[in-house]
Amino acid sequence: MLAWAMWQLRMEGCHNINLVGGEPTIHLHTIVEAINMLRFFKETYAEAVDAKADIYYPYSLDTRNAYYEGEFNTPILWNSNMYMSGETMKILHELVDIWLPDFKFGNNKCATWLSRTPWYFETVSQNHKQIYEWGEDIVIRHLVMPGHVECCTKPVLRWIAENMPDTPVNIMDQYHPDCYCNPSDPRFDKRYSDMARYPTEEEIMESYRYARSLGINFEEITFEKSLRFHPLFFR
């Protein structure tokens, strides 16, 4: 089913297949098998298929969207937290065209406390560096968290500036307290009370200022099409 959905989306004109989740790494065996199956899909299948990936909108299946010199061709986008082994990275290197990784924590203490991911920084930084050394297309995402600008945001941005210069970075301001961090949720855990708020404007602004001071390539990708009108950009 996954291979069929990927094929059909590409036939409908999708620019890439975004493998996300949750976290896609735990489904790697299924993803690898699905990508392998794509080579058996033929151009003539488009004439026999009338089901749609999106039932609400009519799309025509067009082989011009998906085939190049007779071979099925679809860019694979890996949308991940990058907390994975070197062996997994080697497998993905053969399959992935575009990388959209998260780099969230600037130290192992915060990572273990908030996400239960020991050895986070060395694992994730090594995987980011590997992508950079491969010369792959990559956009790094960093989520600014309340109370974590000094311990997480700045170390992450500093590492990127020193090890992956000119790499596009999306500095995201959309953190919101949820689940164990949300006082209105029955699952709320008082241990995470410090995370039970949105980042302040000053925290977001300080993140932007620090990124600029390091020469981080972030403005265009962070503010996207609304760059000219973003109220924080001019402060």
TrEMBL record:
SUPFAM superfamilies: Radical SAM enzymes. Gene3D superfamilies: Aldolase class I. This is Radical SAM domain protein. It comes from Caldiarchaeum subterraneum.
